[in-house]
Structure formats: structure tokens, C-alpha cells
Amino acid sequence: MLRLQAGDDLALNELMDRWRTRVISYLIRMVSSQTTAVDLAQETFVRVYSSRLSYRPSATFSTWLFAIATNLARHHLRWQRRHPAVSLDDPVDGEALHDRLPSASGTPSGDAVKSEQAIAVKKAIGDLPQDLREAVILFEYEGMSHAEIAAVVGCSAKAVETRLYRARQILRQKLRFLL
């Protein structure tokens, strides 16, 4: 990022190669659409480039990057609530093609149970309030610490801890049939 800030525009390619997959994965979990997530990830890197001069090296780059991605996802979700639409590109019945492919290992009944559990967990996380969903995704899937999440979402580390606690309580209640 320091190279990009210093005027080396090719450094953006390195940043994109290094961070694209994680950002897209995070955004898929946030917006539940791969197509939208890819678009938002591209916009995230556009914002990284356009904001390169305001980047402060004292902050962790990943925190700054995920804060940009989170803000874009929030904006998209707000816009989507105000302008509901059904896309022909969205997965059928909330299930992507890779979720429908058979597993190379295990039994068909075991695979079916695992698939149903995965769908139930994905839906339960998707049904969480936005602030709780962000905390869970950043903590569980992105492996961020409470302090890093706090910097991304703009709250205290204690608030992140509380959000994770509440999210786990809700998920435990919704997914009790899986236990």
C-alpha cells in the first residue's frame, strides 16, 4: 500500500492479487450473491486506489480494506431494501451450483445431512441483524480479532464482544435442532 501511495500504480495489482479472494468471500457472506460480491469487491479496490493518499500506515491495511468493503456492503443492502428486485442470475432456492454438486467422499445420506446443515447455518447467519452478522462473519470466517472488527465496523472491542455473544445466542436458539 505504501508503494501505491508513493505513485507505483502497479502495486494495486499486487494488492488485488493478495486480497481479492478474501474480500469476495467476505462480501458473498454479507450480500448473499456472488455476482454482487464480485462487483462490490471491484468497487472496494477502486476506492482503495482513489483513497490511496488518505491511507495512514499506522492502521492495519486489512482493517482499512475490510472497512471499505463493509461500508460498500452496508450501502448495497440499504439500497436493496429500498429497491427490491429479483435477479435471474441469483441462485435458485438460495442454493448455488457448487452446493448442489455431489461430494467425492461420504455417503449420499451423509452428504444430504451436511448440505442441509450448511444451508441452515448459512440462512441463520443471513437472518441475523446486520451488525451481528458483520461481527460473526469477520470473526468466524475472516479470523479477525475483536479489536480489528471494532476498527472495521466503527465500535469498541467490548461492543464487538457483545455482538458476538448475542449472535451466538440467536444462532444457538435457531439451530438447536442441529445439536
UniProtKB/TrEMBL annotation:
Keywords: DNA-binding, Sigma factor, Transcription, Transcription regulation. The keyword Chaperone does not apply. Residues 15-82 form the RNA polymerase sigma-70 region domain. It holds the Pfam family Sigma70_r4_2. Residues 120-169 form the RNA polymerase sigma factor 70 region 4 type domain. GO terms for biological process: DNA-templated transcription initiation. CDD domains: Sigma70_r4 (cd06171). InterPro entries: RNA_pol_sigma-70-like (IPR039425), RNA_pol_sigma-70_dom (IPR014284), RNA_pol_sigma70_r2 (IPR007627), RNA_pol_sigma70_r4_t2 (IPR013249), RNA_pol_sigma_r2 (IPR013325), RNA_pol_sigma_r3/r4-like (IPR013324), WH-like_DNA-bd_sf (IPR036388). One of its GO terms (molecular function) is sigma factor activity. NCBIfam families: sigma70-ECF (TIGR02937). Belongs to the sigma-70 factor family. ECF subfamily. This is RNA polymerase sigma-70 factor, ECF subfamily. It comes from Terrimicrobium sacchariphilum.
